[in-house]
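Recap from last week: sequence in, structure out.
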Amino acid sequence: MKEEASPFFVMPGSALLDLREELELIEDKEAGETLARYGYRAGVGLINSLGIQTLSMGELVDALPQIWMETGLSRLIVEEASEEGMTVKLDESLEAGHGRRCDFARGYLSGIVSTIAGRRFDATEVECRSEGREMCKHHLVLADTQPPSVETKTGDLKYQLEPGYSYIIESEDPYAGFDVFVDYLSLGARGLCIVREYPEKLKKRFYLGSSSYLWLSYERDIKYAREPTNIPLIYSEVKTFLDSAKGGIVLISGIEYMISQSSFDRVLKFVQLLNENVAVKDATLILTLSPLALDSREVKMLERELRVFNPS
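Predicted structure tokens:
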């Protein structure tokens, strides 16, 4: 399924500030991170809409100030750059001019640079005009998002799933779906698994060496832990993975826990949005589910969104 370029529009500065105020009322301190994630996706969309191909770092440094000028957020100056990252300054930042840090711009920078470079760069604002600095300064650093190189085997997949579709595996086995996931990894597919069980334990049972993972947990000291109620963050990270991993595979093992911590309707919407992204990106999604954990109506609603698959 071929992805078509989407039209884009320029958002008035007042609309961006209004959006921030709405988010602050709803999310309080989390508003900045939500804006940054939104900015990242906006940056990816801008570059895709413009049809800009992957550039070398030198070419990117030359092109970035002009691309940024089109956003109307500020004037950008590249202070230094290397293959591992760059430092940029933003002069007369729209966000900082109203007493806020440049969260949307931070995400926008990350999305633009990551898409043009073909590698994920994370942005951090280290100085901001809202805090008395002359200009806002951002560091962009190459993120550790690429899976380690692995020795792949040749041959056919044991489990044949059609790309561009999402599948549901109904089983009381908590590890249902992992054999399918590992099968794809062994032949070189990039994978992301979202799990309830601690990933370090899972890695002792299954070969997950080439995959990324998110742990559904309230543990704040683990870098890859994500609160199960923070569905927008989880969705954003899966979408980012699908954008970068052509034909990738996603396994969600723990959907019942997400529902118990949030609501079925919120999680159903999350699954519906993922299903659409999987179709557009020609990827594969596997969702494992214990039918006894939900009522029959909820199971049927999920079955309407996904293809039922029995790996045995």
